[in-house]
Amino acid sequence: MKLTRRAVAAAGGGLFVSAAAAWGATSDPGARHVLEAAVDAFFAGWASGDWTAFLDCCDETMTFQFPVGEQRGRHGPPEGKRALAAWTAAHQAQGNRITKSTVDLKLFAADWVIVCDRGSGTISGAPYTGLHAIFMRAGPTGRLVEFREYFGEIAA
Prior knowledge:
Layout: H1 5-10, H2 14-25, H3 29-48, H4 52-56, E1 58-66, E2 73-75, H5 79-94, E3 97-109, E4 112-123, E5 126-138, E6 144-153
Parallel strand pairs: 1-6
Antiparallel strand pairs: 1-2, 3-4, 4-5, 5-6
């Protein structure tokens, strides 16, 4: 089947409306509670250097994905939780902190949350300001089963 502009116009954009309606309609209150707690624990981990509460939010069967560094790439279970724990331990040991974060977007859909923020603090002993896009997915165990982060440093 070929989807043309004419077919979309004839449908009155119904394809897009249906997708948008389904997006909001599938939000699960139980998953949202898990995700809110995980987001709070994540930002608290960055601010304090104590990642215990965030790691407690994560299932042993989780997938962890990060674009750079020792743990870069996509790590499925059971390596995912270990890669995340190593990532947080490295930030803790290096004294890396994001002490100020302004959330620009927090979007819930089904068992996912997407958080976009502007954060600043200290990374590798130097001042840091960056933009982050963080994706977390809650699983049936009431814990995170996936974490992905993308970021870019803002030049001074």
